[in-house]
Write a structure and sequence with these properties.
Helix content is about 35%, strand content about 15%. It is of the alpha/beta class. The structure holds pyridoxal-5'-phosphate (PLP).
Length: about 350
C-alpha cells in the first residue's frame, strides 16, 4: 500500500498549523470575528492601487520596497534602512523567528497570545517557553527572566486586548539584553504605546506592525518590522533566501499611499476607539465582564452564560464572533469592534441571549 503521507517531509507530520478565523460568504453577515477594520481603506489608497494596475504589472516589483520603506520610516521618524517590509506581518514574524530564535533555547512567550507564535516554533523546531499571564490575564514582565533564545509578545496582547506601558517593554529589553525581544504591535494604533521610538537605544528590539488592522488593508497583505540595521539585515538575508518579491506592485502602491493619507488613518482609528468604548459600556451593562482593551476588539465573558452557547446563539443571528476552545479563555468571546450599526446589532442580540 502506498501511504500518501510518505510523500511528506517527516518534519511536516507533527505540525499543527494556525487556524484562521472563518471568512464565510454570507450576505448580511455582521462579521466581528477576525479583527478586520470595519471601514474600507482610504479612497486615495484605492486610487493608487488602480493606477498601479494600469501600468507596469508585466514588470517585477522593487525587491527592496524602497518607496514604501521610506514612507513608513518618515511616518515613524526613523531611517528607511531600519524598516523591513513583508507580505503581511505574519510573514515578517516567520522570518524573524527563523532569523533570531533558533539558538537551541526556549523562546519565551505568554500562554495566551497570538497562536501563530507556537506554530512558527513548530515549523522551525524552536521550543516555546510558555510564561503564564497573571490572574488578571496581563503580561507580567518580571516573569521573563529565565535564560532564553528570545522573547515574543504582542502589545497590546491578543486576544486579551490589554496593553503594556513602555516602561515594562524597557524592563524586558534590559532583562533579556542578550536576546532579541520581538514586540508585535498589530493593534498599537488603537490606543497602545509603540516601542518604535526605543529602537535607537536597544540593539535587541524588533518591533513588528501590520497594515491589516488600523490601515484597513487586511486584503493587501503588508506588514513591517522596525529595528537597528543589524536586525533588518538578517531579515533581508532570510527574505532573499526565500522570495525576493514578497510585496507586489499593487501592495507597494496601496501601502505607500496609506502612510501618506494621515487624516484618513486618524479619523478611522478614532472612530473605532470611540465605538469600542461605547460597546464596552453596553456589554458591561448586560452583565459581561470586559477586559481593558487598547485594541480594536473586546475580550468578554458572562458569568451566567456559556461562551460557546453565546457564540452559537449569535451565529444564528448572522453575527460572527471568535470563541477559542483554549484553557483559561474558553469562557471568553473575542469581539471585533464594528461600525456603530454593527455594534448596535451585536448588543441587541446579546441582550436577547442573556435575558432569554
Ligand atoms: C492580525 C495579527 C497579525 C497578522 O497580521 P497580518 O499582517 O495580516 O499578517 C499579527 N499579529 C497579531 C497579534 C495579529 O492580531
Amino acid at each position: 500500500m502506498s501511504d500518501a503521507a510518505s510523500f511528506w517531509s517527516p518534519a511536516l507530520r507533527g505540525l499543527v498549523p494556525y487556524t484562521p478565523g472563518e471568512q464565510p460568504l454570507i450576505e448580511g453577515l455582521v462579521k466581528l470575528n477576525t479583527n478586520e477594520n470595519p471601514y474600507p481603506p482610504s479612497p486615495r489608497v484605492i486610487a493608487a492601487i488602480s493606477a498601479a494596475a494600469q501600468e507596469g504589472l508585466q514588470l517585477y516589483p522593487d525587491p527592496q520596497a524602497a518607496v514604501l520603506r521610506q514612507a513608513i520610516a518618515n511616518f515613524h521618524g526613523i531611517a528607511a534602512g531600519q524598516v523591513f517590509a513583508g507580505n503581511g506581518s505574519d510573514e515578517v514574524l516567520a522570518h524573524a523567528f527563523f532569523a533570531f530564535f533558533r539558538h537551541g533555547k526556549p523562546v519565551l512567550m505568554p500562554d495566551i497570545s497570538y497562536s501563530f507564535y507556537k506554530v512558527y516554533c513548530g515549523l522551525y523546531g524552536i521550543e516555546a517557553g510558555i510564561v503564564p499571564l497573571d490572574a488578571a490575564l496581563r503580561i507580567d514582565v518580571a516573569q521573563y527572566r529565565s535564560p532564553c533564545g528570545g522573547v515574543v509578545i504582542a502589545n497590546p496582547n491578543a486576544p486579551t486586548g490589554t496593553g503594556l506601558p513602555l516602561a515594562d517593554i524597557e524592563q524586558l529589553l534590559q532583562q533579556q539584553s542578550r536576546s532579541v525581544v520581538l514586540v508585535d504591535e498589530a493593534y498599537v494604533d488603537f490606543g497602545g504605546e509603540s516601542a518604535i521610538g526605543l529602537i535607537s537605544r536597544y540593539p535587541n528590539l524588533l518591533v513588528v506592525q501590520t497594515l491589516s488592522k488600523s490601515r484597513s488593508l487586511a486584503g493587501l497583505r503588508v506588514g513591517f518590522a522596525a529595528g537597528q540595521r543589524h536586525l533588518i539585515e538578517a531579515l533581508e538575508v532570510v527574505k532573499d533566501s526565500f522570495n525576493s518579491y514578497p510585496l507586489d506592485r499593487l501592495a507597494l502602491a496601496g501601502a505607500t499611499t496609506a502612510y501618506e493619507d494621515r487624516a484618513y488613518f486618524e479619523s478611522t482609528r478614532a472612530a473605532v476607539m470611540q465605538s469600542r468604548e461605547g460597546l464596552s459600556r453596553d456589554l458591561s451593562g448586560l452583565g459581561f465582564e470586559v477586559l481593558p482593551s487598547q485594541a480594536n476588539f473586546l475580550m468578554v465573558c458572562h458569568p451566567a452564560h456559556d461562551a460557546a452557547a453565546l457564540a452559537a446563539g449569535l451565529r444564528e443571528q448572522r453575527i460572527l464572533v471568535r470563541h477559542f476552545r483554549l484553557p483559561r479563555i474558553e469562557q471568553y468571546l473575542r469581539i471585533s469592534v464594528g461600525t456603530p450599526a454593527q455594534c448596535a446589532a451585536l448588543v441587541q442580540a446579546c441582550r436577547a441571549l442573556v435575558s432569554g
